[in-house]
């Protein structure tokens, strides 16, 4: 159903421009049945919204040219919605929207919207408490407490990264990690902050960190193991490029006591995500089988605010992200795939755009927001790939899958089902929009015939 001020609403016509940004309300939205039926917006310049209650149905929009309401066939309304049911009002709230218009801004407004004082916003703390009550009424609270400790580590790391040049925290620490990488000062600081926060919450038994060769074991009867890359992309730190913390959380089986007990497939994770320290600190969090939610750190309040509820990755987008500097070492199927998107055949075929920051968190966040594909193939130089399964590939794969995307290995198998041979095991990875990963699989399958 399409709508434009004054235009009759019929099920499928296009509409004219309305406003640059604002809040739209459909007042007589009263589906008699299936009221949780999602209203989906398909065009990139639209936001995605769901009917949370009978009426009115509100959603925010930003630089939208059209309002298009697409009612699922199995949804009935009292009567056709007319344009007079839709009111729009300018909203001065600084909405953060992905390029493709998904990641609507729900109740998680930022607090300072000009003259309007937001008094009802969703902080990460409130979100975790509500999720625990909603999903796990018999929960002990251990998981929520662990997440609070994670939140503290992200805020603290964000603080030191923001001040790194001011506090001489740039440059090398003079030490190396298990894979021989020269550690940055902030690699060491970030690692210490993360490990101390996990120890401090008393709910964690084991930590696997990229910066620690061995498994870290804490005293006590913590029920969780946390895997992490405290400062992913640290080679970019001194250039002020966005870096991040990647994490995954496992609930331990009884008797788990050694590193092998943490060599589990990503399907065993209860939650995962990452925090990107860039223009602002953006946390992306997902729970097993759940939605992907985005939070932005309001440094004035020191709170992560829900700004991107229910993030969905677009089904396809002609953007690819890979270090082409390695193409000399690529295997034939990999070369064939990237040639197919760089030199597409056919009259209207257009080559894909290339985007590569060289910081997995930043490349992943852009891919989640805009769509496309991020890949780090295994190659003749790194036959097992570069990125680590436990604390880089698997956590990202869970985020991509829960946002409607996919993540696979070089052999085309599901990344989340890969069982690492050891805690720092590596794999090639292709992740992002479902439509794009299916194209990779098509090329790989041709080679496997
Ligand atoms: P670390 O910085 O945590 O070791 O991460 C590895 C990483 O920097 C990823 O963030 C990034 O995607 C990749 O390596 C970049 O590798 P390259 O410089 O070979 O393209």
UniProtKB/TrEMBL annotation:
Originating organism: Ascobolus immersus RN42
Top-rank taxon: Eukaryota
Enzyme class: hydrolase
Subunit details: Homotetramer.
Sample GO molecular function, one term: fructose 1,6-bisphosphate 1-phosphatase activity
Catalytic activity: beta-D-fructose 1,6-bisphosphate + H2O = beta-D-fructose 6-phosphate + phosphate
Any Pfam family: FBPase
Name of the protein this chain belongs to: Fructose-1,6-bisphosphatase
SUPFAM superfamilies listed in its UniProt record: Carbohydrate phosphatase
Keywords: Carbohydrate metabolism, Hydrolase, Magnesium, Metal-binding
Gene3D superfamilies (UniProt xref): 3.40.190.80, Fructose-1,6-Bisphosphatase, subunit A, domain 1 (3.30.540.10)
Residue ranges occupied by any Fructose-1-6-bisphosphatase class 1 C-terminal domain in the UniProt entry: 313-443
Domain (Fructose-1-6-bisphosphatase class I N-terminal) ranges: 122-309
PROSITE patterns (UniProt xref): FBPASE (PS00124)
Functional pathway: Carbohydrate biosynthesis
GO biological process, one term: sucrose biosynthetic process
Record-linked InterPro entries: FBPase_C_dom, FBPase_class-1, FBPase_N, FBPtase, Fructose_bisphosphatase_AS
Family (UniProt): Belongs to the FBPase class 1 family.
């Amino acid at each position: 159903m399409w709508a434009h001020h004054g235009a009759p609403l019929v099920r499928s016509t296009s509409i004219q421009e309305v406003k640059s940004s604002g809040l739209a309300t459909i007042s007589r939205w009263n589906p008699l049945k299936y009221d949780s039926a999602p209203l989906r917006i398909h065009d990139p310049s639209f936001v995605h919204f769901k009917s949370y209650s009978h009426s009115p149905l509100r959603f925010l929009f930003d630089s939208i040219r059209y309002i298009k309401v697409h009612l699922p066939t199995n949804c009935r309304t009292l009567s056709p919605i007319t344009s007079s049911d839709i009111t729009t009002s300018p909203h001065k709230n600084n909405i953060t929207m992905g390029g493709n218009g998904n990641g609507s801004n729900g109740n998680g407004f930022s607090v300072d919207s000009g003259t309007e004082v937001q008094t009802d916003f969703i902080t990460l703390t409130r979100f975790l408490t509500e999720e625990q009550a909603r999903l796990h009424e018999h929960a002990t609270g251990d998981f929520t407490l662990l997440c609070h400790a994670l939140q503290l580590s992200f805020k603290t790391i964000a603080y030191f990264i923001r001040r790194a040049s001011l506090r001489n925290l740039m440059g090398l620490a003079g030490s190396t990690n298990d894979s021989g990488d020269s550690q940055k000062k902030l690699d060491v600081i970030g690692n210490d902050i993360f490990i101390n926060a996990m120890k401090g919450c008393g709910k964690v038994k084991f930590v696997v960190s990229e910066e620690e060769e061995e498994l870290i074991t804490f005293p006590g009867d913590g029920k969780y193991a946390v895997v992490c890359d405290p400062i992913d992309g640290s080679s970019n730190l001194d250039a002020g490029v966005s870096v991040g913390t990647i994490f995954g959380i496992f609930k331990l089986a009884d008797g788990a006591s050694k590193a092998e007990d943490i060599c589990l497939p990503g399907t065993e994770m209860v939650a995962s995500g990452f925090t990107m320290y860039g223009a602002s600190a953006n946390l992306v969090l997902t729970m097993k089988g759940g939605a992907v939610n985005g939070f932005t750190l309001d440094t004035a309040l020191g709170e992560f605010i829900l700004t991107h509820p229910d993030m969905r990755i677009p089904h396809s987008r002609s953007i690819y992200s890979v270090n082409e500097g390695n193409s000399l070492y690529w295997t034939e199927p990999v070369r064939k795939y990237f040639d197919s998107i760089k030199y597409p055949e056919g009259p209207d075929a257009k080559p894909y755009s290339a985007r590569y920051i060289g910081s997995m968190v930043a490349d992943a966040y852009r891919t989640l927001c805009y769509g496309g594909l991020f890949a780090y193939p295994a190659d003749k130089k790194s036959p097992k790939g570069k990125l680590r399964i436990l604390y880089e590939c698997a956590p990202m794969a869970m985020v991509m899958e829960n946002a409607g995307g996919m993540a696979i290995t070089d052999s085309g198998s599901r990344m989340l089902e890969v069982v690492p041979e050891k805690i720092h095991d590596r794999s090639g990875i292709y992740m992002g929009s479902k439509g794009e990963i299916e194209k990779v699989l098509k090329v790989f399958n041709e080679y496997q015939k």
